[in-house]
Amino acid sequence: MTHDRLSDGTLRSLPNQASVPAYDRDDIAPGIVHLGVGAFHRAHQAAYVDDCLAAGERDWGIVGVSLRSADTRDALAPQDGLYTLAIRDSGGESLRVIGSIQSMLVAPEDPGAVLAALIDPRTRIVTLTITEKAYLRAADGRLDETHPDIVHDLANPGLPRTAHGFLTEALARRRAVGTPAFTVLCCDNLPANGATLHRLLIEFAALRDQGLARQGDVQLAPQGDAPLASHIANDVAFPSSMVDRIVPATTDADRTRIAVELGVEDAWPVMTEPFCQWVVEDDFPAGRPAWEKFGVTMVADVGPFEDMKLRLLNGSHSGIAYLGLLSGHATVDRAFADPAIRQFVDRLWAEAISTLPEDAGLDTSAYTAELAQRFSNTALAHRTAQIANDGSQKLPQRIVASVLECLEAGTEMVHLTLVVAAWIAACAERGKALPEAHFTDPLDAPLTELLSRQLPANETVTAVFDLAGFARDHPERQTLIELAAVHLVHLRRDGPTLAFAALGIDSIEAD
């Protein structure tokens, strides 16, 4: 293998079949700071911004920020921020080098540098893909005031660790010097993600205001201005968005294959599918790129699109992951090819579709047909274990919300409730039929202890619901628990085979 590395200096040596940035990267100015630079951002938002830069919008370069690990920075810095986007389907692969990420920062190494990027007047949008668990919500959905990182950031506003701390401190400093606020664009799978982040940041800022008031400190704001929480509540835009693209984890085999095709090494290429969707509420007081020219749907209300994606794509993905793991399937395409799981997904879709609005212009038939094609993509090798991570954070919006709406409407939801039971069963199988730590969850320590007690199914489900906060205070909570417990009994006795049979689905042996 060649020892040359992908970089600005080697771009011209790449083969013609690889697409490269169609602009001079030296002419690009930073306009976006992105928190949480992982594979999804690099396959999604960064690619859309790359399109805008190529069209001549030169003031929207991205400053990437890793809030935890230095891995992405260490991989991309020697490559001048360049990386390969490998778009794969069953018919082949196309390669595109993305140039929109201009620089990378690692927050724990230098929080001051991150704050400097955020308060730079050229920064007009801050985007986030930090995963559901990084929003640090308590079981009731509010900010977890007791989380050690929240406690730290309230005590040390100039040395933040969390997205909440960085955003709040940056907005305070911009306000103090008269720089207009940036727009905060959440791109994570949270219900009403913009409104949710807005509420969490107001709660954080209110705690900070209270702390400053108790200490008698002067806030970073002009004399006589309202508290910072009021500024964030009234003067900062938080549009919601819906994002969709399947991005499997990159393997060493992927790196080797792409190095051979490019003739240079790329330490961290990104694998993805041809499909890409982004629906964004159009509320950007400080301006935005012309994303709509490149397929982004700009709307007044993203809610119906978000619900369709969460409940049909993400909900079925979770079902495929947990039932696939319990059936011995390592990837989504192999699980989806299992006739029993395929039939289950069709029925789950039918239940979830009943919870979506009929007057929002959603074409659920076309959407699920497209999902079926995407799940069948043999080139992606999307691991079921990857999708299975963080179930306690993901299932409330992907599955539980649909179940509760079905219960309230009196419609069927037995396939949806099987997903909850399958998550519990898959967690219990780690270290047994599944490798230990095969997938992870923020509640792993208490979950492992709880499941090790091998309580009866109803007691197990009740305890898990209490731990994860599922359907807390909902009048139909006990009904949901009882339905999930019945599924868990079947899964414990004979795995998915009995669980499917109880639903009238013919199962087959895992290959």
UniProtKB/TrEMBL annotation:
InterPro entries, A to Z:
6-PGluconate_DH-like_C_sf (IPR008927), 6PGD_dom2 (IPR013328), Mannitol_DH (IPR000669), Mannitol_DH/Oxidoreductase (IPR050988), Mannitol_DH_C (IPR013118), Mannitol_DH_CS (IPR023027), Mannitol_DH_N (IPR013131), NAD(P)-bd_dom_sf (IPR036291)
Specify the signal sequence span. none
Q: Which UniProt keywords apply?
A: NAD, Oxidoreductase
UniProt keyword annotation of Oxidoreductase present: yes
Mind telling me which PROSITE patterns this protein's record contains?
MANNITOL_DHGENASE
Class of the enzyme per the UniProt entry, highest EC level: oxidoreductase
The cross-references to SUPFAM superfamilies, in alphabetical order and at most eight, read: 6-phosphogluconate dehydrogenase C-terminal domain-like, NAD(P)-binding Rossmann-fold domains
Protein name in the entry: Mannitol dehydrogenase family protein
